[in-house]
Specification:
Elements: E1 13-20, H1 24-33, E2 39-40, E3 50-53, E4 60-64, H2 74-81, H3 85-94, E5 98-105, H4 111-120, E6 129-134, E7 140-146, E8 155-157, E9 177-185, H5 190-197, E10 203-207, E11 212-219, E12 235-237
Parallel strand pairs: 1-4, 5-8, 9-10, 11-12
Antiparallel strand pairs: 1-5, 2-3, 3-4, 6-7, 7-8, 9-11
Length: about 260
């Protein structure tokens, strides 16, 4: 389909924002020192590569460490997760600490049709991959995901099964929910980003040289946490001034 008449996407929601860290246990300790409850996603904790900062509802923050040697595993990752996945993981592994990606939520039944529709609109995606993790409490978490081949575009993920959001989350710094994700967008990526996000709320698009998450706003924060503890992430109170620039050169600042 042409850019002038893109297929209309179903509205989506942000699932989680990923923060690349070099040392997951240290990052978990630092985020806890910054006033967040941080929970390891897998067992055993000393070998875990993922940890979450949960809120009772809505998007969450995921701390991510990459496996040893991941920067050299492009081909094996492509073979396992589909074309394009390897370049994305290599980028995660090679970049400095900080935001490395954002995931958009798609219902289980809609993942295959979403990727097929995106492919028809010129946004090819790797195949849908079913995955599971063993949590520290011994329970299994199941979900599926698909990566667009363009490695800077947001990827698609299904809800965790069983659901993981806690009934309550008491972050000592007062954080209650993620209200907005500020996504820098390279102008050439803007049509694909708008097609992918499908009118998602809580996502602000800003023109940038590179497509990447720039900041996350959190309800309940009275002041930004100590940046020295955040491993490159920019976490701001919900009413904080947006990270400049605040407008995109092509239309609305929101998708």
């Amino acid at each position: 389909m042409t850019e002038a008449s893109p297929r209309r996407a179903a509205p989506r929601h942000v699932s989680h924002v990923l923060v690349r860290v070099h040392d997951l246990p240290r990052a978990v300790d630092d985020f806890r020192a910054a006033g967040f409850e941080a929970a390891y996603a897998t067992a055993p904790e000393h070998k875990a590569l993922h940890a979450h900062i949960w809120f009772p509802a809505g998007p969450v923050i995921e701390l991510l460490a990459t496996p040893p040697g991941a920067r050299w595993l492009r081909l094996p990752v492509d073979l396992r997760f589909g074309r394009g996945a390897g370049a994305r993981m290599v980028r995660w592994a090679r970049q400095e600490e900080g935001f490395c990606d954002v995931a958009l939520l798609v219902e289980h039944a809609g993942l295959a049709s979403a990727t097929a529709g995106l492919a028809q609109d010129g946004i090819p995606c790797a195949r849908a991959v079913r995955w599971s993790r063993r949590r520290p409490d011994g329970e299994e978490t199941r979900f599926a995901f698909s990566y667009p081949r363009a490695g800077r575009l947001p990827f698609l993920v299904t809800p965790y099964d069983p659901p993981q959001h806690p009934a309550e989350a008491h972050h000592p710094n007062g954080a209650r929910a993620m209200t907005e994700v500020v996504l820098g967008v390279r102008p050439d990526d803007l049509p694909a980003i708008r097609r992918l996000t499908g009118g998602v709320s809580g996502l602000r698009l800003q023109e940038a040289e590179t497509t990447a998450v720039r900041a996350v706003h959190l309800a309940g924060l009275t002041e930004p946490p100590d940046p020295a503890l955040l491993h490159g992430a920019v976490l701001l109170p919900a009413d904080a001034t947006p990270v400049p620039p605040t407008t995109h050169g092509k239309g609305s600042t929101t998708s």
